[in-house]
Structures are given as C-alpha cells and as structure tokens.
Design a protein that fits this description.
The protein has a five-stranded mixed barrel with strand order 1-2-3-5-4. It is an alpha+beta fold. The chain is 43% helix and 17% strand. The protein folds into three domains: 64 residues, Beta Barrel (OB fold (Dihydrolipoamide Acetyltransferase, E2P)), CATH 2.40.50.140; 69 residues, Orthogonal Bundle (DNA polymerase, domain 1); 64 residues, no CATH class.
C-alpha cells in the first residue's frame, strides 16, 4: 500500500496531479485546500504528499488521495466514518481546510459545514453527531514549516511533538500552548485531555 509519495510535479488539473516518483507517474486526487497550495508550484517542482490509498471490489481501480500533513489524512479517515460519505464524495466536500472543518464540527456550526461541496443540512448533522468531541487535535492544524521536536516518552512532550510534526506549529509556539493548557488544568494526565485543553485555549484566544 502507498502511504507517502515525494517526487516531481508533472501535471496539474482541477482536482488531481501527476507526480513522478522513482520513474513512475502517479495520478493523485487532492482536495481543494491541498490544490490551492500546489497551484503556487510549477511543473518540475518537488511535491510531497501523505497518501490515502483506496481500492475495493466495487472500486477495483486504485485511487490515491493526497494530503500535505499526516494529520489531514487521519482526519480524512475519520470523515469517512460518517454515514453516506465515501472517499470521492469526501474529496469534493473538503473545499475548506481541515482546521476550519474541525472547528465547525466542534462548535456545531451547521452553516459552516453546509458550505462544504455536496453537504446539505442532513449530512451536516450526521457529521456533527459522528465526529463532535473528536476534533480538538485537527482544529489545531496550522500551515507552516515545522521544526523537529526532541523525542520523549513523556505525554506532554508527545503532544508537543504532534503539534509540531503533524499539525504544523513551531516548536516554541507549541511549548507555549501546552504550558498554558497545563497551567489552566495542572491535573491533566493523558495526551487526549491535553489536546482538548490546548484546543479550548486556542478558541478562547480568538
């Protein structure tokens, strides 16, 4: 199974690219929010993507779907758990960033979710019912270059590592966010609760 591709951009279309990696050209479908960043690149530039690989008996032709961050691919997998949302419908729906969609889900913002392509009131309610309360981590995604965290088994450093490696925050900023969350709730003892508190803190600061 293909999980990651890095190579040369050969072609751009409205919703897909062709990426040359190891002398093989891969057709990769990309959501609009990913394509917006690829559009600033030129043919011949290097592109790297985390890949969701889809192939079933009903869909025997493999479909590759690309994301800039591993966390975006993880969100996509959770988005597929919503009833009646398959991979192709999900790609078209993601015309907003994962960060914005996650925040809309957490705040139960139906109107924001109904702005997604192909998502009506009923499906928006299903999205909230299925995913609300699980989106704190994804609501923290930020589109910036990352610094690599120092490895650690401590859950606080694990959260910092995810904020930097997967969600795109700078190391100093991630440490400040976690420090503020721990100051507000010093009895937090696991990464899930810490992510939730960091997310709450970010929402208060907006």
């Amino acid at each position: 199974m293909i999980a990651y591709l890095e190579g040369t951009l050969l072609k751009k279309e409205e919703d897909r690219i062709i990426l040359l990696a190891n002398q093989v050209g891969y057709e990769v479908l990309v959501p609009l929010f990913v394509m917006e960043t690829i559009n600033v690149k030129s043919v011949g530039d290097t592109v790297s993507l985390f890949i969701y690989y889809h192939q079933t008996e009903r869909q025997p032709k493999p479909v590759l779907i690309g994301f800039h961050l591993e966390a975006e691919r993880e969100f996509f997998l959770m988005f597929l758990s919503v009833e009646a949302i398959g991979p192709l419908k999900a790609i078209k729906a993601l015309n907003l960033s994962v960060r914005d969609i996650a925040r809309a889900i957490e705040s139960k913002n139906l109107e924001a979710l109904k702005r997604l392509n192909g998502i009506g009131d009923r499906t928006a309610r299903k999205i909230i019912a299925t995913l609300q309360g699980k989106m704190g981590k994804f609501a923290l995604i930020r589109d910036e270059e990352t610094d690599k965290p120092l490895p650690s088994e401590d859950f606080v450093d694990q959260v910092i590592g995810v904020l930097v490696d997967q969600l795109g925050h700078k190391m100093l900023q991630a440490k400040q966010m976690v420090k503020a969350a721990m100051k507000r709730k010093p009895l937090i003892s696991n990464p899930e609760d810490l992510f939730d508190e960091v997310y709450r803190g970010e929402m208060l600061n907006e």
